[in-house]
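Lab notebook, bench 4. We co-purified these components, and the gel suggests they stay together. Before we commit to crystallization screens, I want a quick structural picture of the whole thing.
Request: model the full complex, all chains together.
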Amino acid sequence: MRESPKFEKSFDVEGGSFQNAGNVSGQIKNILKDLGVSTDIVRRVAIICYESEINIVSYAKKGTITLAVTDNAVKIETKDEGPGIPDIDLAMKEGYSTATAAVREMGFGAGMGLANMKKYSDHLIITSEVGVGTCVKMMVMNFPKLLHPDLPVVTL
Amino acid sequence: MQLETLVRELKLKVSCAEGSIKRDVKGGYVGDLLSDVMANSKEGDIWITRQVHQNIVAVASLKDLAGIVLIQGSEPAHDTAAKADAEGIPILVTDLPAFEIVGQIYKLIKP
Ligand SMILES: Nc1ncnc2c1ncn2[C@@H]1O[C@H](COP(=O)(O)OP(=O)(O)OP(=O)(O)O)[C@@H](O)[C@H]1O
Ligand SMILES: [Mg+2]
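Here is the predicted assembly.
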């Protein structure tokens, strides 16, 4: 069953624009705080959102980040136009990075972003087509499902 | 401990957001890799780094860090300073290398 979100908004992210990098994540964090989402969830979403945003800025031409909030989950979905990821399993490995020297100079390129996105979300699905772009769907559960067995199941 | 006290005791130069130094420092984190700091720093930490690029302000703001200490006399880049002032993220500068300033901060906040 797919729940209809009580809040949904998309943000544009421009590739290469390091001077604005993090702005979308900041806006999303503020929206979640205003919606009364718990601090722990807001922190986790801030991490996965920032890593997603930086990857679009670092590797893609442009992209969008969509935030959807339901009663029991926060979803972040990114879509970009860019080079795509040829080997997703390899890209997920901590330490693997193709970041340029200029990007590393700013403190990125540790190869930790995707690993962090997996660690701090409850679900993560990446699809990518080389030469076209990448799509990442992540979900952070709003509270432990086990404690609320009667809640509807959320699907990505 | 108050950030203001750290500034005074360790003679840190307040480079940005001077109006925001009356806040609590709960701990600290050291790192130059932003993904590492993003994942592992905690709310209220003072962050010691050599990075001066403006992305440090976004990281400190998203993670609710208490402030940023730049080492070895590194000044924040121009855009970094403007952003830190706008977002109220204190940036402090020390002439000491990381090992020494971290040792001193540790002694003060984890006695
Ligand atoms: N949106 C994307 N488009 C194309 N390639 C990507 C994208 N996101 C990640 N990658 C590829 O996957 C690699 C690993 O990404 P990851 O975010 O884990 O680390 P990183 O960006 O290299 O470094 P860090 O995130 O630690 O600063 C990247 O170096 C890049 O090759
Ligand atoms: Mg990354």
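Chain A has five helices and five strands. Worth comparing against the SEC data before the next meeting. The longest helix of chain A spans residues 39-59.
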